[in-house]
Specification:
5% helix; single chain; mainly beta; Jelly Rolls; 35 strands
């Protein structure tokens, strides 16, 4: 049977946006953006131009509000604003006007960088990083390209749709007077005993990243504590950017999860998680377990609580193609799908896609069971997917196999399991990750493909996000090869759903 996209069975004559000329303002026309074959159809991204970190996700007045780093003028990093979208379900988003932008001559004249949002006494408060170019000796951000002074700024709103954010005239926290400081940005918050605590990503040159700690009763007046919440050591890398050398932790996040506390931070090109105990009297976090949050192209995550108290995680999915290509395409980056976090009895992080993602499902195709190998081969032979927009749920055992999705001429992505490769057992779209054997039940993998974006979670513990820049001009097919048994016995179950786009042209939500 054919698995037809609900967008229609015909293969469209799409192409990448760089095939179209920009208008007089240097912008790719909207029809070209909508027709770009590599542009995601159910992930959150702006209508055009550059986006990066999720900022201040908050549930307000019955809706989820998402802000994110945004350049309104080009599809490359620079001129950072907070863009704004709203959703009833974390899946279907509506674009709203830009929420925050630089104030000429002010403390954020060179950018409104990342931050967080909380509700305090019925008012939404957003604490963010304001940056201003200064001489190198006064800078907190010195990455070889910029000399920025970073401060913590505050904006508030009681607007029903958060359409109007009012900035405070002065920063609410200034950086410490420390000549070795290697960054001061990306504040996060939590409340304890009616006191607000704020952590901020920082570090020391030659030493390592850390989270500086402050407290306040009103979110306006802050006291610096004399010790960090947590700290680490630099790597052996030699780099002008302290983040690349592990001397600065970006985008930290900290929250209670089950009977543990969890800390995230982004450094040296990866996002790390640590679970452990928080000493609420000494205000120090003691890590007990540590891991990589996502083994692929994923950065700067930010979490929030849903109304039902689920801990929801968002992350930025950057481009991995050359800057010249995404600049010419007119758009860059997307938000990850919402992930739900929990902690197991051993203190290990548990990750799954939010159940709201199931609302995107269209037609279902299922592989017959391993007890009927002839039917399985026939089903695979007849499988056809007309667009790279699908969800796969895969269960497999302890034997090697390889699954490929692509046209007759090109592979879109592949999944390969090689249990003999210790520490490198699983490969997903070119990313190799460890996958320890399971004594019972086999392995479970859930994967979303959305044009050039792929997100996968294995055994609710290993996340892999990848970019797959492969165009297509024919229906896609599944191929599974196994070295031990032609009956496809290692793959015990495989379901594939088509996925509906979240708007008719992905620009008008």
């Amino acid at each position: 049977m054919k698995l037809l996209s609900l967008l229609g069975a015909a293969i469209p004559s799409f192409r990448t946006a760089r095939a179209f000329a920009a208008d007089a303002a240097g912008q790719i026309p909207q029809f070209a953006l909508a027709a770009d074959l590599l542009r995601p159809q159910f992930h959150l991204l702006p209508k055009r131009n550059w986006m990066n970190d999720p900022n201040g996700p908050i549930y307000w007045n019955g809706n989820y509000h998402m802000f994110f780093q945004y350049n309104p003028n080009a599809a490359v990093w620079g001129d950072m604003h907070w863009n704004h979208t709203v959703s009833p379900d974390m899946i279907h988003w509506k674009h709203l006007p830009v929420a925050l932008g630089p104030t000429t001559g002010g403390y954020d004249t060179d950018g409104c960088f990342s931050g967080s949002g909380v509700i305090h006494r019925g008012t939404a408060h957003f604490l963010y990083t304001g940056v201003q170019s200064v001489p190198a000796a006064q800078a907190t951000l010195r990455d070889g390209a910029h000399n920025f002074r970073e401060v913590v700024a505050l904006a508030t709103s009681r607007d029903p749709q958060l359409l109007k954010l009012e900035k405070f005239p002065e920063p609410v926290i200034l950086p410490p007077d420390e000549p070795r400081i290697a960054g001061f940005r990306d504040p996060f918050l939590w409340q304890q005993d009616q006191v607000w605590y704020l952590g901020i990503g920082s570090g020391l040159y030659g030493e390592g990243g850390r989270v500086l700690l402050y407290r306040s009763s009103d979110l306006q007046h802050w006291e610096a504590l004399d010790h960090p919440l947590a700290s680490g050591k630099r790597t052996d890398a030699q780099a002008s950017n302290p983040v690349a050398a592990g001397e600065m932790w970006e985008c930290p996040d900290f929250f209670a999860l089950g009977d543990k506390h969890l800390l995230f931070y982004s450094t040296a090109g990866k996002v790390f998680w640590e679970s452990g105990e928080f000493d609420s009297k000494e205000l120090v976090f003691h890590a007990q377990k540590r891991g990589v949050l996502d083994h692929g192209n994923y950065y700067a995550p930010k979490s929030q609580l849903a109304p039902d108290n689920r801990r929801i995680l968002w992350g930025w999915i950057p481009e991995t193609r050359p800057e010249a290509e995404f600049s010419a395409a007119g758009w860059s980056g997307s938000m990850s799908l919402p992930r739900v976090l929990s902690i197991d009895n051993d203190g290990n992080l548990v990750i799954d896609f939010a159940e709201e993602t199931e609302s995107l499902r269209g037609a279902l195709w299922s592989l017959p069971g391993p007890d009927n190998p002839a039917a399985r081969r026939d089903a695979l032979r007849n499988f056809q997917l007309d667009r790279p927009s699908a969800e796969l749920a895969l269960r497999f055992g302890s034997e090697p196999f390889e699954l490929r999705l692509g046209t007759d001429d090109a592979t879109i992505f592949s999944i390969a399991y090689h249990p003999q490769n210790s520490g490198k057992e699983l490969e997903i779209a070119g990313h190799v990750v460890p996958l320890a054997p399971r004594t019972a039940g086999g392995h479970e993998l859930r994967l979303f493909l959305d044009a050039s974006v792929l997100e996968a979670i294995v055994n609710r513990s290993i996340a892999v996000t990848a970019r797959v820049y492969r165009t297509w001009n024919a229906p896609m097919r599944l191929r599974i090869t196994e070295s031990f048994d032609s009956s496809l016995g290692s793959v015990s179950a495989l379901d594939c759903w088509t996925i509906n786009p979240i708007s008719s042209d992905r620009l008008t939500t």
